[in-house]
Structure to design on (344 residues):
C-alpha cells in the first residue's frame, strides 16, 4: 500500500453480490466511488443492470448508477487499488484461486466474509494467504461487526471494525468505508475480528433454537454471556487480543445475530427448535447461513486446540448428528459446577 495514496481517489472492485456484498457496494458507490461489482448469477447481474435493484438478495433498495454489475470476474478485479471480497466462506478458496496472478502486488484486499474453512480450519485471512501469495500481508484487512445488510443499505447508523496486521492499512480502509451512518474503528487484531465473526454465527443458531423451543429471555441472556466466554477462550488460544471480544466484532456482532429476527443463522436455529430438520431448512434457503458450516469447523478446531466450547459442541451435535435440542440444553445446564472465571 502506498501510504500517500488519497483514500478518496482510488479504484474499487467488489467481488460478491449477495445481500452483504451489494449493501457494501451501495455504501461505497453512495460515497462517489465508481464501483465494479462481480455478480455470480447471470440473472441477478442483468436485473441489477436493467432495474437497478438486486431483487433476489437485497430487494427494495434502489442501487445508484455508479455501481456497475458484471459477470466477468477478471474485469472487476483488474487495475484496482482496493478489492472487497464478500463471498460465502466455503467458496472463498475457489473464488480467490481464480484471482491469483491478476492483482497488483500492492492491491489492498478486504474481506467481509465470516467463517472458517472446514477442511483446513483456516480463517479467511489464512485462505487468502494461500491463494493470493502475491498480495503483501500488510495489505490485507477484514471488515467485521454488527451489520445487517439491509440496515446498512438504508443508512441506519452502524458501527464496525476494520482490522489489519498493519494498522496503517486498517486506518486506510477505515477512511474508505466510513460515512456519517457507517462508523468504522481500526484494529490490528485480525484473528480476533475473524473469530468473533465466525463463532457468533454458531451461537446465533443456538439462540434461534432457544426461541424455537419457546424459552425465555433469561435463557437467551445466559447463552449470549457464555457464548462470549467460548469466543474469548478460543481467541486467547489463537493469539487474539481479549479486548476485541468486547467490541463491535465480538460482543456487538454476537448480540445482533442472537437477537435479530432477520439473522439467517438465528432463523435456522429457530426452525430446528420448532421441530424441522436441517436438510429441509437449508433446501428452502437461497442465502447462506454461515454458522452451519462454521459449526463443523469450530468443533474440529476446538478439539484440535483442546479448547472447551460446550455450546458450539452442542450446536454441532444438533446439526450433524441429529441430536435433540432439549437433550443438548439439559447437558449444558447440568455440566459440573465451577468458578465463573476459571475457564475464561
Amino acid at each position: 500500500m502506498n501510504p500517500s495514496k488519497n483514500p478518496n481517489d482510488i479504484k474499487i472492485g467488489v467481488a460478491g453480490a449477495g445481500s452483504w456484498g451489494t449493501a457494501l457496494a451501495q455504501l461505497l458507490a453512495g460515497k462517489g466511488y465508481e464501483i465494479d461489482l462481480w455478480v455470480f448469477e447471470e440473472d441477478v447481474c442483468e436485473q441489477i443492470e436493467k432495474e437497478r435493484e438486486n431483487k433476489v438478495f437485497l430487494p427494495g433498495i434502489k442501487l445508484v448508477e455508479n455501481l456497475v454489475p458484471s459477470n466477468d470476474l477478471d474485469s472487476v478485479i483488474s487495475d484496482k487499488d482496493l478489492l472487497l471480497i464478500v463471498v460465502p466462506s466455503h467458496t472463498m478458496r475457489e473464488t480467490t484461486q481464480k484471482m491469483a496472478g491478476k492483482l497488483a502486488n500492492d492491491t489492498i484486499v478486504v474481506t467481509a466474509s465470516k467463517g472458517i474453512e472446514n477442511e483446513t480450519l483456516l480463517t479467511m485471512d489464512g485462505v487468502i494467504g494461500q491463494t493470493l501469495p502475491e498480495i503483501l500481508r500488510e495489505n490485507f484487512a477484514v471488515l467485521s461487526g454488527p451489520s445487517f445488510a439491509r440496515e446498512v443499505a438504508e443508512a441506519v447508523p452502524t458501527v464496525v471494525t476494520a482490522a489489519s496486521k498493519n494498522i496503517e492499512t486498517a486506518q486506510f480502509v477505515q477512511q474508505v468505508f466510513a460515512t456519517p451512518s457507517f462508523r468504522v474503528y481500526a484494529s490490528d487484531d485480525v484473528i480476533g475480528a475473524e473469530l468473533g465473526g465466525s463463532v457468533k454465527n454458531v451461537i446465533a443458531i443456538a439462540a434461534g433454537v432457544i426461541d424455537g423451543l419457546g424459552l425465555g429471555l433469561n435463557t437467551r441472556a445466559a447463552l449470549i454471556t457464555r457464548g462470549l466466554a467460548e469466543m474469548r477462550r478460543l481467541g486467547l488460544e489463537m493469539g487474539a487480543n481479549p479486548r476485541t471480544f468486547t467490541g463491535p466484532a465480538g460482543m456487538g456482532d454476537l448480540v445482533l445475530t442472537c437477537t435479530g429476527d432477520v439473522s439467517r443463522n438465528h432463523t435456522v436455529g429457530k426452525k430446528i427448535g420448532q421441530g424441522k430438520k436441517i436438510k429441509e431448512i437449508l433446501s428452502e434457503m437461497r442465502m447462506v447461513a454461515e454458522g452451519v458450516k462454521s459449526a463443523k469447523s469450530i468443533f474440529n478446531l476446538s478439539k484440535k486446540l483442546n479448547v472447551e466450547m460446550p455450546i458450539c459442541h452442542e450446536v454441532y451435535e444438533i446439526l450433524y448428528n441429529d441430536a435433540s435440542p432439549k437433550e443438548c440444553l439439559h447437558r449444558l445446564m447440568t455440566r459440573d459446577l465451577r468458578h465463573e472465571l476459571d475457564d475464561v
Remarks:
- Residues 190-212 form the longest helix (23 residues).
- The chain has two domains: 12-188, 196-333.
